Amino acid sequence: MRLAFALLCLLAASTADACKPPRDYRREPAQRAYDAHYAQWTHDAADALVKDPDPNVAWASLVMLLQVGEGDHAATLDLPRDPTSGVGRLMRYAYCGETERCPTGITEWVESEPDNLFVLAVALHENDSYASKARRKLDGATRYDDYTVATRTLEETLLARVPAPPPVPAGYVLPACSVLAFDAVAPRPNLGNQPAVLAAAAVFLDDGKLATPLRLKIAQLLTTPNRSPLAAVAGARLGTWAAVDTDELAHYCALEARGRSFDGDVYEWIVKGGHGVDPAVRADYFATLATRNGIDALTDIAARLPQALKPKPIDEAALAKCNARLAKKE
After folding, report:
1. Max CA-CA distance within the chain?
2. What is d(CA 24, CA 30) in angstroms, rounded to the nearest whole number?
3. What 3-state class would DSSP assign to 153?
4. pTM
5. Quick one: what percent of the chain has pLDDT higher than 90?
6. Stretch (H or E) spanning 181
7. Is the pLDDT confidence value at 116 over 50?
8. Residue with the larger pLDDT of the pair 240 and 264
9. What does UniProt give as the signal peptide span (predicted)?
10. Closest CA to 55 of 98, 107, 108
11. Which residues have CB under 8 Å from 204's CB, separation 6+?
């Protein structure tokens, strides 16, 4: 299995599991009625928002329609004007990648943010010709921003501009395979549930064309505070491969060990949320990302996580093996 794909599977594992409902899975009539009510609310809200004067909001509304199975309807709507922010460009990329209505989006995105490692990583998923151009720009990257925090803010903006979602009935749970999130009030759009966000950091693990100094630079950008819950997982792994001295290796090995102590489900919990999630804990986590990388921020809230998501003890044997890698290269 390709390494980038393997990491992607780790980060998205609980999404895949959630989309395998048991054969006898049934929705209660009251829940099905609410599902339909919420879908109609989403349809009406997105129809209004696609005309919003803020193009970033307008593009997000198209993504919202895709998430609730309204892709055919979304394809009939006029495309908004070009986004004016990074998170808006992410929304455009997510919509265009699903519908193929605007194939030049990635080119415009890279031209707008040539210093953003995340955008260049997304571009590496494109055809070979464009991927080669993006790879040549990697050495000029100075930051990594996958807009996870900005996406949460954008969701709040969307919800503030439309009537409140229909009140959730007592005992309601999201259907299996839902791409929506659930907070203390009601289901909500989950614009951050995009493959680009999950896969971009992982792509560097599978790129054999990167020189060691560039790998180390990328590892550093992925593991510094960058408002991403996911980047540090890939950055720590990349750092253990590229480290050239013992102190450097020890740093990345320790970070990777702490990341591995958390089950993969915790990343799904953080990015997407779910029934029973304490929104205050998630809010504190995302606030912490301003000064901590994704793994360190998880460590900070570990005591407040649900029992099933608390970290396991550090695997000391695996940590020792990681720290011995330089000796094996000699």
Report:
1. 66
2. 18
3. helix
4. 0.85
5. 40
6. strand 181-182
7. yes
8. 240
9. 1-18
10. 108
11. 4, 121, 210, 215, 218, 222, 234, 238
Residue type, 187: P
Q: Count of H helices and E strands in the chain?
A: 19, 2
Residue 78 has pLDDT above 80, yes or no: yes
Mean pLDDT of 220-249: 93
Closest CA to 215 of 136, 102, 139, 153: 139
Q: What percent of the chain has pLDDT over 70?
A: 86
| Residue 59, both tokens | 């593009």
Q: What distance in Å separates the CA atoms of residue 188 and residue 178, rounded to the nearest whole number?
A: 11
DSSP type of residue 190? -
The whole-angstrom separation of Cα 84 and Cα 185 is: 31
Please tell me the distance from the alpha carbon of residue 299 to that of residue 278, in angstroms, as a whole number.
Answer: 17
Token pair of 330 as six digits:
């000699």
Q: Return the residue matching tokens 């996580």.
A: 305
- Mean pLDDT value across residues 191-210: 71
State yes or no: pLDDT of 2 exceeds 50.
Answer: no
Sign of CA dihedral 32, 37, 43, 46: negative
How far CA 154 is from CA of 57, 74, 80, 150, 216, in Å, comes to 7, 19, 16, 6, 32
What is the rounded average pLDDT for all residues in the chain? 83
Helices (H), 75-201: 86-99, 105-112, 117-123, 128-136, 148-160, 195-199
**pLDDT, tens digit, 9 for 90 and up, residues 125-181:** 776 677 888 888 999 999 999 998 899 889 889 888 888 888 888 888 888 777 777
User: In 3D, which of 124, 321, 145, 120 has the Cα closest to residue 240?
Assistant: 321
202 pLDDT more than 50: yes
CA distances from 298 to 116, 225, 261, 285, 290 (A): 24, 12, 11, 7, 13
Task: Tell me which residue has tokens 């929304």.
Answer: 91
How far is it, in rounded angstroms, from Cα 169 to Cα 175? 14
Nearest of 306, 241, 240, 227 to residue 274 by alpha carbon:
306
